Amino acid sequence: MILVNIDHVPGKKVEKVFGVVKGSTVHSKHIGKDIIAGLRTLVGGEIEEYTQMLDEARKIAVSRMVKDAEGMGANAILNIRFASSAVMQNAAELMAYGTAVFVSEE
After folding, report:
1. 47 near 40, Cβ under 8 Å?
2. Radius of gyration of the chain (CA)
3. Confidence of residue 99 (pLDDT cuts 50, 70, 90)
4. Whole-angstrom distance between the N-terminal and C-terminal Cα of the chain?
5. Separation of alpha carbons 21 and 99, rounded Å
6. Residue from 41, 32, 11, 19 nearest 97 by CA
7. Tens digits of per-residue pLDDT, 2-40?
């Protein structure tokens, strides 16, 4: 699967557009990690526990988006974007979305 965040794949021709595909997940850390993250906010700097959580969530969301596109017969996803939102305290949704297409050599 070709994944790009632009509206074309260089050197390829879009043969068919299938439409929007998405993948999402809601993640949270266990209470121990939340306590450590809370303490980190007192001294500043990167909160590694949440960075790791969001990295895992991005991978899952992209994987689900790819599965959605494969089910349509696509071999590429254009204009990939990410969105996140707080679902509840200490839990975040991460969504990946784009346009599923079939591309071939020009």
Report:
1. yes
2. 17
3. very high
4. 17
5. 6
6. 19
7. 999 999 999 999 999 999 999 999 987 655 555 555 555
- Residue-wise pLDDT for 45-74, tens only, equals 677 777 888 899 999 999 999 999 999 999
Residue 51 CB-half CA count within 13 A: 5
Question: What totals of helices (H) and strands (E) does the chain contain, helices first?
Answer: 2, 4
Neighbours of 5 (CB within 10 A): 11
**pTM value?**
0.83
Q: d(Cα 74, Cα 25) in Å, to the nearest integer?
A: 22
Distances from the Cα of 63 to the Cα of 5, 13, 22, 73, angstroms: 16, 24, 10, 15
Domains by residue range for the chain, with CATH = 2-105 (3.30.110.70)
